[in-house]
Amino acid sequence: MSMNNLLPYGLGNPELVEVQKGYFVDAAIVDDLNKLIEAAREAGFELRLESAYRPFEKQLSIWNRKARGELALLDAEGNPMERPADEEELMYAILTWSALPGASRHHLGTDIDVVDGKACPPGYEVQLTPAECTGMFAKFHEFLDERFGSATSFGFDRVFVPGRGKIRPEGWHIAHLPTSRKRLENFSLATLKSIYRNTDIACKRVLLARLDSLAEDYIYPYFV
Ligand SMILES: [Zn+2]
């Protein structure tokens, strides 16, 4: 298989551009992203990235460290929880807050997490929570809502919205949909399974056994 066919899984070498310090996106979305940043600026906001392209290895590292107890495992309310001994329970606990390696939309280079830099108090560390979206970033989200609702967002929209799949809503996560659709055309569960078989990934046995049903809840609902 050519490395280009592995791009949707965060493998291979996508053409990336650093749009803000430390944040890389697919070159194909840069023009539209700059238009959205400019529209935000004109409306009085500073569209700032908090996350962008993330390779497979990075997501795998998050996954494995949570499984080993090296990173905190949080329950649905965001409180630290004990690590389940059962492999399947552990897998679902990790999935509460972390995407499956190889199936994170941050692998695509078309998805970003955004905040209004202007609304951040000095020294404030962004958490990316629903409370921020309805709190300090509420005006910024009203601006985004208005743009998404009137097809004046240059191809960007939210992906993790209420009522879609089992990933909790993430108002801060936006995607350049025309480009992400292209990237996902070649995505297949068979390929993802073969990647897992050849990877040192925690919960491998249950991941492989449950992947088809996991995909119905955590992957395919977000192919929008
Ligand atoms: Zn995100």
Question: Could you please describe the fold and organization of this structure?
Answer:
With 224 residues, this protein is of the alpha+beta class. The chain has one domain (3-222): Muramoyl-pentapeptide Carboxypeptidase, domain 2. 38% of the residues lie in helices and 12% in strands. The protein has eight helices and six strands, in the order E-E-H-E-H-H-E-H-H-E-E-H-H-H. It has helices at residues 30-42, 56-68, 87-95, 130-134, 138-149, 177-184, 189-197, 204-218, and strands spanning 16-20, 23-26, 47-51, 111-116, 156-158, 173-176. The strands form two sheets. Strands 3-4-6-5 form a four-stranded antiparallel beta sheet. The longest helix has 15 residues, at 204-218. The mean pLDDT is 95. The protein binds zinc ion (ZN). Zinc ion is lined by residues 51, 106, 111, 113, 170, 173.
What's the total count of β strands?
Answer: 6
The string of secondary-structure elements, in order, is EEHEHHEHHEEHHH
Number of helical segments with 4 or more residues: 8
Q: Which band does the percent of strand residues land in?
A: 5-15%
CATH fold description: Muramoyl-pentapeptide Carboxypeptidase, domain 2
What is the CATH level 1 assignment? Alpha Beta
Which small-molecule ligands are present, each listed once? zinc ion
Helix content class: 25-40%
How many domain regions?
1
Largest sheet: 4 strands, antiparallel
Radius of gyration (Å): 18 Å
Mean pLDDT: 95
By CATH, the architecture is named: 2-Layer Sandwich
- The low-confidence parts are none
Cross-sheet strand order for the largest sheet: 3-4-6-5
Structural class: alpha+beta
Compute the separation of the termini in Å. Answer: 26 Å
Describe the global form: globular
